[in-house]
Structure formats: structure tokens, C-alpha cells
Amino acid sequence: MSDRREDGTMTIFADLVFVVFGVVLFVFAEDMLFARRFGPITDGARSSETGGYAFRFLGVVFIAVGVAKLLGF
After folding, report:
1. Measuring CA to CA, which residue among 39, 36, 66, 62 is closest to residue 49?
2. Is residue 34 part of a domain?
3. Using 50, 70 and 90 to split pLDDT, how confident is the model at 1?
4. How many separate domains does the chain show?
5. What is the pLDDT of residue 63?
6. Could you tell me if residue 5 is inside a domain?
7. Is 2 among the domain residues?
8. pLDDT band at 67 (very low <50, low <70, confident <90, very high)
9. Which residues form the domain of 45?
């Protein structure tokens, strides 16, 4: 099985990985304490102290990209 489609894009498996990674980031955003500075919202604060907004945003981005790729955009 090739790791690329005929048009050069990634396989469905890779697209699903994007979606799953986004869901994990979104669901467990408050548990990720290793990022201390990520933009103006979480500057100098732990992710758990801000409700994990930065990781939730990244999760939504990964989900959107994965779904768009699955739909063929």
C-alpha cells in the first residue's frame, strides 16, 4: 500500500491521525502542563490555570485540517 494517493496527498490513515491528534489535544488540554508560554492568553501561566485555551485552539486546528483533508479540500 502506497503512503500517497495518486494526486500526491497523504492517505486516509494520515488524515485520520490528524483528527485523532486534534481530539486528544482538545480533550486533554487542561492536563498538559509542559507549555508555559504560548501566546498572549497563556503567557507565563500553566495550561491548567488557563483552561487549556491554547491547546484547545491547536486541537480545533488539527481537527479542521484533518476533516478538510478527508473531504478532499
Report:
1. 36
2. yes
3. very low
4. 1
5. 94
6. no
7. no
8. very high
9. 12-71
pLDDT in tens, 7-51: 555 688 888 999 999 999 888 877 665 555 555 555 555 555 666
Kindly write down the DSSP assignment for every residue of 1-70, as one continuous string: --SB-TTSPBPHHHHHHHHHHHHHHHHTGGG--S----TTTSTTS-GGGTTTHHHHHHHHHHHHHHHHHH
Residues counted in the chain: 73
Cα–chain center distance at 12:
16
Report helix, strand or coil for 73. coil
CA atoms within 13 A of residue 71's CA, in its CB half-sphere: 8
Residue 3 lies in a domain: no
